[in-house]
Amino acid sequence: KHLSFLPASMYTEIQRERPDGGNILTHPDYIDGNPDLIKPKKLLNPVKASKSHQELHRELLMNHKRGLGVDSKPELQRVLEHRRRDLLIKQKKEEEEAKKLQSPFEKELLKRHQRLDQLEKEQEKQEDHEPEFIKVKENLRRTSTVTGDEKAA
């Protein structure tokens, strides 16, 4: 078993002469050349067989040959993104100018409106924390007072 003293060429010859038991991979039967056997075909990868994948691969190869990077975008797409960015910047500037042009009266109205919204939200939160039987009891009181008022009228 210790073959370290053998020259490298002798070791390779011994490896070649080993029986198939030492080989991990088994040899397929169709190599024998038996014409009765159906030879297996390699399965196609559905991703690589798709047209879109082939077109994308072709485009990447062409860009690579031209020297364009993968990150570079077509000119039309760059122009459209530039226009969108400019439009957003203009809209933000217009909004800022509109805020600057508000009179002190409009600003005060806006502050009051915001305060009222906050108060309404706080009241809703407080009402949500009350147990349900208190809400039902309040509704019963209202209906009893309404019916009592209607009887008096």
From TrEMBL:
Residues 116-153 are annotated as: Disordered. InterPro entries: FAM107. Its main location: other. Residues 116-141 have a biased composition (Basic and acidic residues). Keywords: Actin-binding, Cell cycle, Cell junction, Cell membrane, Cell projection, Coiled coil, Cytoplasm, Cytoskeleton, Growth regulation, Membrane, Nucleus, Stress response, Synapse. It comes from the Eukaryota. Pfam families: DUF1151 (PF06625). The keyword Cell membrane applies. The keyword DNA-binding does not apply. GO terms for molecular function: actin binding. One of its GO terms (biological process) is actin filament polymerization. Stress-inducible actin-binding protein that plays a role in synaptic and cognitive functions by modulating actin filamentous (F-actin) dynamics. Mediates polymerization of globular actin to F-actin. Also binds to, stabilizes and bundles F-actin. Involved in synaptic function by regulating neurite outgrowth in an actin-dependent manner and for the acquisition of hippocampus-dependent cognitive function, such as learning and long-term memory. This is Actin-associated protein FAM107A.
